[in-house]
Amino acid sequence: MIPEKDIDNCGLFGVMDTSGRRFGGEMAVNAIKNMKVRGNGLGGGFAIYGLYPEYKDYYALHIMYQDKNMSAKRKTEELLTENFYVVYDEEIPTNPEINVFSPPLVWRYFVKPQKKSEEAHMLDDEYVVSKVMHMNTEVEDVYVFSSGKNMGVFKGVGFPEEIADYFMLEKLYEGYIWTVHSRFPTNTPGWWGGAHPFSMLDWTVVHNGEISSYGTNRRFLELHDFYCTLHTDTEVMAYAVDLLMRRQGLPIEVVSKIFAPPMWNAIERMNKEEKELYTTLRMVYAPLLMNGPFTVVIAHHNEMIGITDRIRLRPITAGAKGNLVFLSSEEMAIRRVCPDLELTWTPAGGEPVVARLNTEDHLKSLNKSI
Amino acid sequence: MYSHLLSEFTVQRMDDRCIRCQVCERQCPNEVHEYDKELDRMFTYEEKCVGCQRCVVMCPAKALFVRSHPSEYRMNASWTRDKFQNLKKQAETGGVVLTGSGNDKPYRIYWDHMVLNASQVTNPSIDPLREPMELKTFIGRKPDTLKINMDGDVPKVESELHPNITLKSPVLFSAMSYGAISYRAYKSLAMAAKEFGVMFNTGEGGLPVEMRKDYASNAIVQCASGRFGVDQDYLNSAAMIEIKIGQGAKPGIGGHLPGEKVAQHVAQTRMIPQGTDALSPAPQHDIYSIEDLSMLIYALKEATNYEKPVSVKIAAVHNVAAIASGIVRAGADVVAIDGIRGGTGAAPLATRDNVGIPLELALASVDRRLREEGIRSKCSILAAGGFRCSADVLKAIALGADAVYIGTAALVAMGCTLCQKCYTGKCAWGICTQNPYLVKRLNPEITSQRLVNLLKAWSHELKEMLGGMGINAIESIRGNREHLRGISLEEWELNVLGVKGAGE
Ligand code: SF4
Ligand code: SF4
């Protein structure tokens, strides 16, 4: 049965301690609860960084088995032991008293690649991506929630606070970045794998909006061997981030200008060097321009990034106090969890807010805000 | 004149309105109207009428009507009038039936069987009157990834880029050569392209020397089998070079400009003797394989210092996707595909009507094939052949084209009424003729404005439709078939087009 959806909206929130101090999930849960009307109870999820310090050298795979399909689990574990050294695994603990819609079995595995000779040349990350892609596309009833090191994604069908209670996030976990999202992707049925965050390795994306350029984006990603299987626009965003930032090593300052480039008439007015850079970016990466309304929070180790579309159809609010940096769909949500904020601002379209460990880089977007 | 043929048109003059001014007599290049001074009467020889409507619109008294002739052969579903008449003409002459303009057969026009998307509620449409809407388009090869040096204040691009041309709007003027069209028509295209920030294509007739300085940055010069007018200076007086292998109106057929049209200036521009027939064979006699094509591509790049993209134009034919793939692998930066509805000045009727395939199907399969092979960003695709309106253009871009060439639409903007008699050299509108009396009918200042207006109008419409889809940059609709749906198409057609049916 597919649950009905009625409210069309999303809320997202992220908080990072730039000193790297780990903290519990209270702020993330309370902030998203404060934007309850943006959700519809059909999808919610969290990404937490700094989650497994004791296993930080291992890829932490969060894998869900739909309908608690045990034969899918057996098949997956055969695959895992064939391709990885599994140092530890367990069922992700859940609270049986919380009533959620059709919960799958969710298991976590801490693994290291076990490459065959012909795969020896592959980088570990590439290897993990290919195995995850294989599990997601080829093995029925199996979906990998997350596959990064020292981080994890918890998500499902329900309001985010219900998902938090179900996985007992506030009781059991700490991290230095928490991002959260309150709805499942637009125009797809609500299912546990379909909720945000979307992730690949340690990259996670929570997204609000609809990307009208989805078809163009998808086809470009296919040229680079990313196959979109979830039929949701957020997936292209996650893969595009992986392609540009991880594989091609472009920094977010450049990537944000690919996703949400300046208008041509602004480029015309730039100095020669900048004009050349922005013209080339638009020319070469035109198919990765993300058109239509969006706000995203992208996170990976050491970095949390917020961007909105270039004409700011979905604005984002940033806030800061001491080492804490907040990103949210609404300022109210930030104030709810940090009433004595030192700063809040609304960055311009396409202008990224970048919170990095041990820097004040996020303030760079401050002078471009209104 | 042929014997035993029914006239195609009837010319009716309302005598009470006619003021005997003889405008029609002077306007008709086919000598249909004649004034008899003694009788003070106008006579008509309607069997000569080609239905160009020039006399009708020029008649100050609005006394003329030209319509299909009411006399009909006995109705016969198999022996239609055109089959019947053409056969009679051949029985009389033993020759090939010639025609001008594009295919007029009722083959399915897929543009009319595809509809575009529009945003509602959660993904708002964008109002182009209030928000910027961007149509700028680059044509040429792009690298798959950029290497960027982040050391300085401004990140610096380190990758080497291939040359690209920039268009203000994704519509270019298709190849129409000087000689086939008049100097004034040719100049009008160049002027309009320059004013609007797009390109015109010289076709295979060369580029007059006096135009090279002013119009080089908006010219695409063609290198066709006849090599007319091709030298180093010509190649360098262009923004892009196009090798013409085939053309949609007559795939597998070369060109023939009759000697009568090769006037002194045409001869000089084409570098051939005045009054001689300019025959260009269908094959380029130095190209019999992809390797040969590659050699020509690189010879042209070498001759122009690797500063200009090189395009290869082919007709849409059965195996077009594989051919296009070979062309890209041979080093072309652009593939131009010309479909069965492409126009021409002169073609054997049998070829025009029966050879080639519709552009829409060819475009969709070329785009898909290049993507499957991972080489789509190595080239741009220019689609040509029968674009009638801005919606056709947008649908082509959504199917995968980077930009489109328009030929017939530009001629219609200049005055052409598709009488299909371009090959006679008697174009009543001064477009397709070298007759000085007829050529004077075009004023490039005025005609180029009509062309600019056309581009302007289509650009406005493109922006409106893009805004409706919640898209504010043309690149986000390119190849975006999610925004197309098919109507009344069969499953195989939807599959080839890669488009879902409406309602899905
Ligand atoms: S050929 Fe053209 S100008 Fe001459 S009579 Fe016919 S419509 Fe009029
Ligand atoms: S260009 Fe002239 S001759 Fe050719 S179809 Fe148009 S009006 Fe007729």
Question: What is the strand and helix layout of this fold?
Answer:
The complex is a heterodimer of chains A (370) and B (504).
Chain A: E1 12-17, H1 26-33, E2 44-49, E3 59-65, H2 70-83, E4 84-91, E5 105-113, H3 124-138, E6 142-146, E7 151-156, H4 160-166, H5 169-172, E8 177-181, E9 198-200, E10 203-209, H6 214-223, H7 233-247, H8 252-259, H9 264-268, H10 272-284, E11 294-300, E12 303-308, E13 317-321, E14 324-328, H11 331-337, E15 343-345, E16 353-356
Antiparallel strand pairs in A: 1-8, 1-14, 2-7, 2-8, 3-5, 3-6, 4-5, 9-10, 10-11, 11-12, 12-16, 13-14, 13-15
Helix pairs in contact in A: 1-11, 6-7
Chain B: E1 9-13, H1 23-27, E2 33-36, E3 41-44, H2 54-58, E4 64-68, H3 81-93, E5 98-99, E6 114-116, E7 137-140, E8 148-149, E9 156-157, E10 164-167, E11 171-173, H4 183-196, E12 200-201, H5 212-215, E13 219-223, H6 232-236, E14 240-244, E15 255-257, H7 264-270, E16 278-280, H8 290-303, E17 310-315, H9 320-329, E18 334-338, E19 347-348, H10 349-354, H11 359-372, E20 380-384, H12 390-399, E21 403-406, H13 408-414, H14 436-439, H15 444-468, E22 484-486, H16 491-497, E23 500-501
Parallel strand pairs in B: 11-21, 12-13, 13-14, 14-17, 17-18, 18-20, 20-21, 22-23
Antiparallel strand pairs in B: 1-4, 2-3, 5-19, 6-22, 7-10, 8-9, 15-16
The complex binds iron/sulfur cluster (2 copies).
Residues 11, 27-28, 30, 32, 49-55, 66, 428 of chain B line the site of one iron/sulfur cluster.
